[in-house]
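Journal club prep — side note

Before the paper discussion, L.F. wants everyone to see what a predicted structure for a comparable chain looks like in token form. Sequence:
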Amino acid sequence: MGETSSTNPLFKFIPSFSILVFPLLSSLSFCTRSRLALIMFKSTAIAAIALLASYANAAALDVFVPPVLQPKTGASWTVGSVQNVSWDISNAPSQITNNQGLIALAQDGQIFTTQTGGLDNPLASGFDIRLGSILVTVPDVATASNYQIVLFGDSGNLSPVFAILQS
């Protein structure tokens, strides 16, 4: 188990331009050692400049920290009901480091982990953080007035404190 039937190598060596061209040029009669050295220097310099230019043109990725708008402070949710979680996307950058969202439940500022609604079994996951809202089903948890929603994408943002009530 775990064996592969392919005989292809895992990694493939791709030679640089200088390695490919040097043997061809050295076989030509007009190329002296100094000309070859100059050609190799120029091709290496061009490659280095191209590499630097590609880094300069790369768009910077920004961390997006949208404030949670819903649930509001003092809101009451009932176990089993479907509720809207929303967050402010008005200042979303064009390039977000991580645009995949996850919504988990917290109580007293402690994020649930293995419980329903926690990190292992979130209320919602895999959605685009730029949506601005998503519907969630309220999990079967004890009645309390110290719950919070945690919105993950680039960061973890806590909602205001709200209540969850048994039906």
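L.F.'s comment for the group: The two ends are 50 Å apart (CA to CA). Keep this in mind when we get to the figures.
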